[in-house]
Amino acid sequence: MRQERVWDVTRKSSLLPEFDVIIHAATPASAVLNSENPEEMYRLNVLAMENVIEFASRHQKPPIVLFTSSGGVYGEMPDHLERFPEGWDRPWSSVPLSSAYAKGKVDAEALLSKATLDGKCQGLIARLFAFSGVHLPLNRHFAIGNFVRDVVCDQRIIIRGNGSPIRSYMDGQDMSEWIFQIIECGSPEEIYHVGSERAISIKDLATLVGNRYERLTDNPVKVDILHQSSPLDGVSRYVPSTERTRTQLNVNETVGLEQSIDQMIINGMKTYRKTISD
């Protein structure tokens, strides 16, 4: 039987069941799809998990299945919180999720937990937040990627909204290290937060990206704030608590936000055929 090289997880897999670890990160993080076709966004999240579980269940020894869920499952952060607590039981029944992406992640988590209880796999759940780094797309709905693209192309940054939402950014290198550590020593009984605790407003983030670009190139950057709203706008505050995750897994952030932005700018300038002045 010929092994398929690419598996579309919206279909059942013909791969031979011979894996020790499956990392399930194959659900779309598309604000456009979530806004324009929420039914499809939800369907893809749930269907992908069903097919991953079906594949895992065909293994003689139940494999580890690491699911990259999302901090988006929490919805809007209550005013009294600075960070989403680890182990926080969101009042699901009283606070409906407006996001099909978030609802899909919640139900996919539940499917994986049940499959673990049924002995089909060893499910591990990592709730990911926001990230930076050289592998982040510069042409999607990710603010930090858009800002880097703006500076390397036009030496100006455009903030479509008012710049007040709060985010935090972990570099992709640290994110991958944390995920591998969850695989190595994580427990199905825990839900792990993967993200940075360093909060920053979108306006301050734009200023920081501009300052890092100017430091690298000696070219000044202008920041324009348009004060527009959009259906693609996310929650107003999106910052995790990670103390328990860091303690249990013995992990920390090793790449600061400034360093991560510098790497993105340098890589972005190469991508857009620009060079840094000596």
SSE arrangement:
Elements: E1 21-24, H1 31-36, H2 38-57, E2 64-70, H3 100-117, E3 122-128, E4 131-132, H4 143-154, E5 156-159, E6 166-167, E7 170-171, H5 172-185, E8 191-194, E9 200-201, H6 202-217, E10 222-225, E11 237-238, H7 243-249, H8 257-271
Parallel strand pairs: 1-2, 2-3, 3-8, 4-7, 5-10, 6-11
Antiparallel strand pairs: 6-9
Helix pairs in contact: 2-3, 4-6, 4-8, 6-8
Percent of residues in helices: 25-40%
The largest β sheet comes out as:
4 strands, parallel
Strand content: 5-15%
Q: How do the strands of the widest beta sheet line up side by side?
A: 1-2-3-8
CATH topology of the domain at 21-132 and 168-198 and 238-254: Rossmann fold
CATH superfamily of the domain at 21-132 and 168-198 and 238-254: NAD(P)-binding Rossmann-like Domain
Please tell me the overall pLDDT: 89
H/I helix tally:
8
Any low-confidence stretches, pLDDT <50, length ≥5?
A: 92-96
CATH architecture of the domain at 21-132 and 168-198 and 238-254: 3-Layer(aba) Sandwich
Structural class: alpha/beta
Shape: globular
The top level CATH class name of the domain at 21-132 and 168-198 and 238-254: Alpha Beta
Order of helices and strands: EHHEHEEHEEEHEEHEEHH
